[in-house]
Amino acid sequence: MQYRNIAIIAHVDHGKTTLVDALLKQGGAFSSHEQVDTCVMDSNDQEKERGITIYAKNTAIEYKGTKINIVDTPGHADFGSEVERVLRMVDSVLLVVDAYEGPMPQTKFVLKKALEHGLKPIVVINKIDKPTAQPAAVIDMLFDLFVQLGATDEQLDFNVVYAIARDGVAILNMDDERKDITPLFDMVIDKVPAAANDTEKPFKMQIANLAYDNYLGRMGIGRVYEGKAKVGQTVTIIGNDGVRRTGKISKVFTTLGLRKVEVAEAEAGDIITLAGIPDIFVGETISTVPDAEPMAPITIDEPTLKMEFMVNSSPFAGREGKFVTSRNIRDRLEKELEMNVGLKVDLDGGDGNGYVVSGRGELHLSVLIETMRREGFELQVGAPQVIFHEEAGKKMEPMENVVIWVPESCSGTIIEHLGKRKGLMTDMKTENGITSMEFEVPTRGLLGFRSIFTVDTKGEGIMYSSFSKYDEYKGPIEKREVGSMISGFPGTAMAYSLWKLEERGPILIEPATEVYEGMIIGEHLKGGDLVVNPTKNKQLTNMRASGTDEAVRLTPIRKMTLEDCLDYIGADEYVEVTPSSLRLRKKFLTENERKRGGKA
Fold first, then answer.
1. What does the CA dihedral 220, 221, 223, 229 come to, rounded to 10 degrees?
2. CB-based burial of residue 511 (10 Å sphere; 0-12 exposed, 13-18 middle, 19+ buried)?
3. The pLDDT of residue 574
């Protein structure tokens, strides 16, 4: 059988997963009676809730006697390590671009990686049914981007397909009849080189991804480059450190639609899943030849943010979580390291109560925290901090390429805020009352900015960012202009107290919430921290007078998500994360400790 291996890459929300849905439906992956969801590849709970792809997943369909392996990749810069690994397995990519928005920061990132691997993309201009669609202009923008990223002459001669992925339609020219997605299938068969299929050579493959099964344990996913993988085969595994060990393949799976199909053997060119090697790791080479040459290592960009994960030390510690000790947290982080190659954890540093975890961005780390929380872990985390580098004696910091769309009336406020955060505007356009702006901003400047951005644009703004490069240190940045309202007493928060405190700033907790000394209950708008008593109730007497009994009407609070909490906290604050609660607190709970710690 012939194989075509492709990855679908794009910026967030440009329609990758929807396009995979259309390919699966028309490729016969579902029976006629099956009820099919949208975004079927987003199977993880957080993927469904957030509406984004977090993990790269592979599927396959058969078309005209050829098996097409398709890998759906994340569009978010924080999960770029997933994209980098996957590109090693494929022979071409479908670059999906919105017919109105054109190439975005993440389009640039994933395209750069694809071009570096020598892949020739097929460009899919999606959402051509939008009233504002401008496919011709988008193709011009893409050509400029290809040139800017150093594409070869062959890569510049890319093929274009126009699509409405939601409706399962693809066409080669804008005036063609809009029927089905067959033109895209035909383009893949014609233009993507067939995978090398030499089954006579000894078996050889490289692991690009990992999976886990409760019965089979850890499994390796990768492409077979030479020979055949057979059940019961004894193989040599060449580790990333060059050390060789032996193992035995217990099961081989290939993919068809959304199903894993168990087979006795799989041949070169196919993307398969192997079970039976419990200590398999990403990047390792597997071969039946004991002295086989290892394949080139899979390189991953370095993390740019770090965060402390610690044992919860608040007065409410151990009430709500199932796993609360440093040993539990350490074991969980070690397990995560096996699967999440973009992550780094310093397990030996610190005092044994906390570990420094480094990742590609706030979202990357918050997805891990949210996953741990849902598994029953209780912990506290510190504020995200940027990882600095030193080059030629100079302090270097990560910079982000930021694209923003806001109503024209909000543009001045956003420029002012990003200016204070050392942002440099590189482009600005206004069309139909919407201003689009591009900035180069230090990653430090974006920490805590999203919540301000949402308030300033009244929720109408759109912001995307992706890591650009390391640049010279830009100087100090003030992260937050407001202080915190801190409870000075333990007890239960009273509606009367919170009502009186509202004039000092927004309250972050509901009445009847249990509080402890040092817990943050609101923002203090006049700057500087303020210690308050939210547990005080109104003194009641049996005397009544008209006009003195005011009705207590509280402003509805803004429910803080995990990302909001991480955005909000300063260097002297923690987020307490439990399966059922998120609490903000000071590092030092009592006022005396805070004074001794250098921050009153």
1. 50
2. middle
3. 92
